[in-house]
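[Meeting: bench + compute handoff]

Bench side (C.D.) handed over the final construct sequence. Compute side (W.E.) agreed to return the predicted structure before the next meeting so the bench team could plan truncations. Sequence as handed over:
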Amino acid sequence: MLELNRELAAKIGAHGAQDYPHECCGALLGTDGAAGRAVRDLVPLSNRRDDSPRNRFAITAEDVRAAERAAAERGLDLIGWYHSHPDHPARPSEFDREHAWPWYSYIIVAVAAAVPGEMTSWRLTDDRARFEPEPLSAAGAGAAQHTSSAGGKL
């Protein structure tokens, strides 16, 4: 399970809306322990893809290093990545699978007509054959805990 508070979920959605009709992307900073994974902060990144930013995103090695530095400075770990799917469901594509790494959490937010919609989380299997849904758990300041039972949706 991946815990993501409502404020950070809203920031991911806003990033997707801002970059629409292109894919947005960023890093998930947080903790990973016996109690589960929790996203505590984000590092929004620029989509470095020049040839097809509407349906692909790319980050550089320097982006990864910057995300790792930001995590270390905040006493957190780099636990995953997020990106948007403009006018497409919040499901990983074959391209996503081919470019993903096991262990990390991958949040995808669907954005239609610059309005963020469904948000899901996924983990790539160790053999890299497929993504498995990762349930999202959301809570806001003073809000009751909500756990997704829909296989990774928020």
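W.E. noted at the follow-up: Residues 13 and 116 are 5 Å apart (CA to CA). C.D. will use this when planning the next construct.
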